[in-house]
Design brief:
With about 300 residues, the protein is an alpha+beta fold. The chain contains nine helices and 15 strands. It folds into two domains: about 130 residues, Aminotransferase class 4, branched-chain amino acid transferase, N-terminal domain (D-amino Acid Aminotransferase, Chain A, domain 1, 2-Layer Sandwich), CATH 3.30.470; about 150 residues, D-amino Acid Aminotransferase, Chain A, domain 2 (Alpha-Beta Barrel), CATH 3.20.10. Helix content is about 30%, strand content about 25%. The protein is globular, with a radius of gyration of 20 Å. Pyridoxal-5'-phosphate binds next to helix 7 and strand 13.
Length: about 300
């Protein structure tokens, strides 16, 4: 696997970061996960926009233009693309860890860089920029027949959840609590109101209307969330951004979770109770179809 680190493309084994990096010491950094479909970064402009907002939010100055980010990330995808049979013949066996150029996942992380350990921001530190590209893990085929299970948990995270911070310990522990109880995701509730999943945004369907919580400090403004809203509006499907009370979640006709690498996942069991008769609902089929066509056309 070839990764990008501070201006260089190099094999992952040769990519090293100082133990004094504030990302390592404080979790002081932000990240993006960008899907690649048909060899092209999906919704790159939106991901870069969120990246810049996050850098501003944590007061980290990185002087890179959108064009420069795009160049690096495209190069990274190409470096990791599986070679064609013809190229393989010319150059011998393809190295391990290459990804099919079609579908992949780019992870980009920017931390505040190396500085003596001190909570306050260093006067001088050069941001550490790291990116890697991994094969996309496709959703299990039975998902569209059976859906997935989720549990609800109290959202005890901080009040800056709109920042895509690399400090993910609460999300990690919440997700693990779900996994320990046999569920795939935790849906988080703060003062009787749904915020989001441990690593996803939440939608419900109520009387034919799609509802997702409004953006704000308690949830990440997901790129897939926005895309789903956009596709719904374009196709005259009623949708609104409105707070979802816990009882509305429990009584929803359908529940979905969205994220860049998992698309739209239908929840068919919540806290052990069946949702939408234990099968992905009709509106999920419609929106999932629209999203898959959108991705297919990502040329
Ligand atoms: C906490 C959280 N909310 C929402 C999302 C979905 O965001 P996106 O659609 O941009 O992947 C993620 C993605 O990992 C996440 O970690």
């Amino acid at each position: 696997m070839i990764v990008f680190l501070n201006g260089k493309f190099l094999p992952v084994e040769q990519a090293h970061v100082s133990v004094l990096d504030r990302g390592f010491i404080f979790g002081d950094g932000i990240y993006e996960v960008i899907p690649v479909y048909n060899g092209k970064l999906l919704r790159l402009a939106q991901h870069l926009d969120r990246l810049k907002k996050n850098l501003d939010a944590i007061r980290l100055n990185v002087s890179m233009s959108d064009g420069q980010w795009e160049e690096i990330l495209n190069e990274l995808v190409l470096c990791n693309a599986e070679k064609s049979d013809e190229e393989k013949g010319n150059e011998g066996a393809v190295s391990q860890g290459t990804v099919n150029l079609g579908n992949a996942c780019v992870y980009l992380q920017v931390t505040r860089g190396v500085a003596p350990r001190d909570h306050s921001l260093p006067a001088e530190a050069k941001a550490t920029v790291f990116a890697m590209c991994n094969p996309a893990v496709s959703a299990a085929p039975e998902l569209s027949e059976k859906g997935m299970t989720a549990i609800t948990l109290e959202d005890y995270r901080w009040k800056n959840c709109h920042i895509k911070s690399i400090s993910l310990l609460p999300n990690v522990l919440l997700r693990q609590q779900a996994v320990d109880s046999g569920a795939a995701e935790a849906i988080l509730i703060r003062e009787n109101v749904v915020t989001e999943g441990a690593a996803s945004n939440v939608f419900i369907v109520q009387d034919g209307t799609l509802i997702t919580p409004p953006k704000g400090p308690f949830l990440l403004p997901g790129i897939t969330r926005d895309l789903v809203l956009e596709l719904a509006s374009e196709n005259n499907i009623a949708c609104k951004e409105q707070a979802i009370k816990e009882y509305e979640l429990r009584g929803a006709d359908e529940i979905w979770l969205t994220s860049s690498m998992k698309d739209i996942l239908p929840v068919t069991s919540l806290d052990g109770k069946q949702i939408s008769k234990g099968k992905p609902g009709p509106l999920w089929h419609t929106l999932n179809g629209l999203l898959q066509s959108f991705k297919e056309n990502n040329m």
